[in-house]
């Protein structure tokens, strides 16, 4: 059967900075979002236990969680791997026929559709292209091409968002039609967050000024600009419903939590006094906790005092902020907070409730596990940790699991 004729869509009316090609409409996307992984439903090959040992560990070019942290994906020098997080389990391995690195992988919960960007010294795909892969078909069914390197990709069931160094493009998933283009300040990290469980979509990205956030509400069709930090933005995270947004700057000392619906500042927490590079921020599913990882090697968990369920819905432009105490008994608030305004701000800061210390020297990402009060930590060095924190007493977390996800014992035979 002859392959379908490619359908080409112009990505911008003025022509030129990007283009979209849809090779064929894929079959209906199968999603499993209840925390279980279905190889048949998702189109992934089932695990094979007798994995042959590898001579050496592959290079890791990319790590990321899926939307609910139930899985994580590693982009390697010859393909990608997907793992379950709670408990840890290798789910799927795909070694590409042609040798080449994958520098970015975007998952959509546990669906068969993923987005790839090439990476490493011998990239599988050009760094200026987003390849849309359907694992039912074991091939790409579409691509998005740009004039410069792709920095990040986000997927929703209805949209694909592509981030360049100074632009954000929003496409319809079904036909790859460009629906919105946003200009940003220099955004080398590809910072961008979108809501996933709400419709219409809410999107946050850097604005045009240093430290500024731009929030696009596609329900009210309004744009809000928030001066979040004096320094440039370094990291951000959004709750799945799009109501809360956490940001950190290049200083890495403070993390701020905003109402994403009206841009108001709800809470500020302190990671530490020394400068640090923030690698990741993550909200718990109930928005009671916020986790932070940095180059200092310590994972911090903070108690949030905001009840996101009481905030206005995305479709309602009248936003109201309601602060409510969390069942954490106020852990993390300095006993000197009554002197706020008299002593330096440092002494009245809100500090982390729980911590977990890691070896310095590698980049770690953090997310929350499926079980209550558990944290998942993954590192570019192949480390996987699952830890538990005491929501009442706080302090050092308890390690529940530790694995090297790159080891031969955790590899599957190629899919």
From TrEMBL:
Pfam families: PROPPIN. SUPFAM superfamilies: WD40 repeat-like. Keywords: Repeat, WD repeat. It is a peripheral membrane protein. It is found in: Preautophagosomal structure membrane. One of its GO terms (cellular component) is phagophore assembly site membrane. SMART domains: WD40. The keyword Repeat applies. Its main location: membrane. Belongs to the WD repeat PROPPIN family. This is Autophagy-related protein 18a.
């Amino acid at each position: 059967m002859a392959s379908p004729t490619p359908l080409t869509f112009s990505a911008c009316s003025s022509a030129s900075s990007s283009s979209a090609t849809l090779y064929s409409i894929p079959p209906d996307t199968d999603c499993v979002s209840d925390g279980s992984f279905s190889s048949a439903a998702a189109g992934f090959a089932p695990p094979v236990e007798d994995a042959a040992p590898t001579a050496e560990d592959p290079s890791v070019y990319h790590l990321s969680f899926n939307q609910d942290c139930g899985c994580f994906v590693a982009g390697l020098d010859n393909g990608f791997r997907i793992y379950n997080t709670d408990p840890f389990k290798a789910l799927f391995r795909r070694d590409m026929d042609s040798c080449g690195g994958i520098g970015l992988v975007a998952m959509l919960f546990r669906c068969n559709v993923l987005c790839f960007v090439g990476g490493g010294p011998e990239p599988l795909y050009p760094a200026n292209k987003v390849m849309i892969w359907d694992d039912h078909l074991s091939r790409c069914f579409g691509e998005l091409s740009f004039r410069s390197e792709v920095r990040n990709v986000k997927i929703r069931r209805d949209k694909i968002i592509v981030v360049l160094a100074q632009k954000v493009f929003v496409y319809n998933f079904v036909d790859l039609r460009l629906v919105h283009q946003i200009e940003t300040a220099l955004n080398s990290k590809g910072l961008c967050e979108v809501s996933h469980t709400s419709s219409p979509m809410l999107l946050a990205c850097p604005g045009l000024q240093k430290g500024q956030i731009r929030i696009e509400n596609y329900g009210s069709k309004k744009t809000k600009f928030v001066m979040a930090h004096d320094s440039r933005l370094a990291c951000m995270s959004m709750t799945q419903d799009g109501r809360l947004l956490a940001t950190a700057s290049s200083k890495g000392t403070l993390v701020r939590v905003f109402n994403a619906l009206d841009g108001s500042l709800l809470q500020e927490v302190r990671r530490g006094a020394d400068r640090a590079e923030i690698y990741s921020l993550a909200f718990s599913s109930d928005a009671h906790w916020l986790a932070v990882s940095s180059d200092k090697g310590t994972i911090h968990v903070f108690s949030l005092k905001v009840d996101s369920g009481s905030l206005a819905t995305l479709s309602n432009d009248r936003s109201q902020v309601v602060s409510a105490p969390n069942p954490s008994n106020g852990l993390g608030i300095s006993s000197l907070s009554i002197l706020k305004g008299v002593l330096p701000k440092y002494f009245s800061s809100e500090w982390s409730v729980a911590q977990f210390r890691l070896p310095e020297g590698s980049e770690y990402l953090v997310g929350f596990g499926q079980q209550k009060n558990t944290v998942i930590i993954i590192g570019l060095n192949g480390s996987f940790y699952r830890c538990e924190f005491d929501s009442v007493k706080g302090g050092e977390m308890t390690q529940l699991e530790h694995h090297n996800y790159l080891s031969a014992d955790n590899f599957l035979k190629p899919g």
